[in-house]
Amino acid sequence: MTITSIIALLISTILIENVILSQFLGICSFLGVSKSRKSAVGMGLAVVAVTVIAAIVTWLVYNFILVKFDLVYLKTIVFILVIASLVQMIEVIIKKFVPSLYKSLGIYLPLITTNCAVLGVALKTVNNGLGFGAMLLYSIGSGLGYLLIMYLFSLIREELDKRDVPRAMKGIPIALVIASILAILFSRYVGIAPEEKEDEIVINDGLNEQAYETVPSEEYFKDIVGGIDLWKVS
Fold first, then answer.
1. Are 122 and 79 in contact (CB under 8 A)?
2. C-beta of residue 213 within 8 angstroms of C-beta of residue 203
3. Which of 4, 73, 108, 159 could form an S-S bond across to 43 if both were Cys, CB 3.0 to 4.6 Å?
C-alpha cells in the first residue's frame, strides 16, 4: 500500500464518505449529543476508540471464525454482541484505571453500544473484503470523520443558541437544516478524487467523423487499495 493510497483512503472516509453526512449513520448521537462542544468531543473520541477496536475484533472474528465455519449469515448478530461486549469491557477498564476519563465521558460511553456508526463501519470492512491494513485505515478515518463533524456541528449549535432563532425553528428543526447544509458542503469534496483516466470514442454521426466523446475508463472505478471503489463504498 503506497502513501498515495493511504492518504486517499483517509480523505475518502473522513470527508467524502463521512459516516454521518454521507452514510447517515450515528444520527441519534449526532443530534442528541452535539448541543455543547465538550459533550460532542467526548462522544467523538469515545466513538473513534471503540470503532477502531471493534473493527479489528470483528474483522478477526469474521475472517477466522465465521468464514472458516460457514457462519457468515450470523455476522450482524455476532458483530452486535462483540461491540456490546467491547464497550462494557472498555467501560470497566477505564473506570478502574482512569477514573477521571470515565467521569468526563459519563453516559456517552455506554451509549456507543447503540451507535449504528460503529456497527456500520464493521460491516462495511468485511462486506467490501478489505485487508487488515485497509480495514484499519478505514476504521480510523471513519472515526475521525465522526469526530470532525460532531465538533463542527457543536460549534454551530452553540452559536445558534446565542442568536434570535424563530420559535418554530428552535432545537431539532434548525439543527436538521444546518446538518443538510453541511452534507451539501461536504459532498463537494468528491472533486478531490484522483483525475479520471478517460477513453476516447469516435462518433460517426454521418456528418463529422471527428466528433469525440470521452468516458471514464474501467480503471477509474477501481479502488487504488485493491478492488474496492473508494468513492462509493457500499
1. yes
2. yes
3. 108
Tell me the β-bridge partners of 211. 203
CA–CA distance, 225 with 234 (Å, rounded to integer): 15
CA angle 150, 130, 48 (to 5 degrees): 25
Residue in the structure block whose three cell numbers are 459516516 = 19
* Pair 111, 150: CB distance under 8 Å: no
Domain boundaries, the chain: 3-221
Q: How far apart are CA 3 and CA 80, in angstroms?
A: 33
Residues 6+ apart with CB under 8 A from 212: 200, 201, 202, 203
Q: Which of 32-46, 55-69, 119-133 has the lowest mean pLDDT?
A: 32-46
For residue 42, give the C-alpha cell: 467526548
Burial status of residue 210 (CB atoms within 10 A of its CB: 0-12, 13-18, 19 or more) = exposed
Closest by alpha carbon to 214, among 204, 203, 200? 200
Q: What CA–CA distance (Å, rounded) separates 92 from 136?
A: 24
Higher confidence at residue 31 or residue 111?
31
The pLDDT value recorded for residue 58 is 95
What residues form DSSP beta bridges with 199? 215
First to last CA, the chain: 21
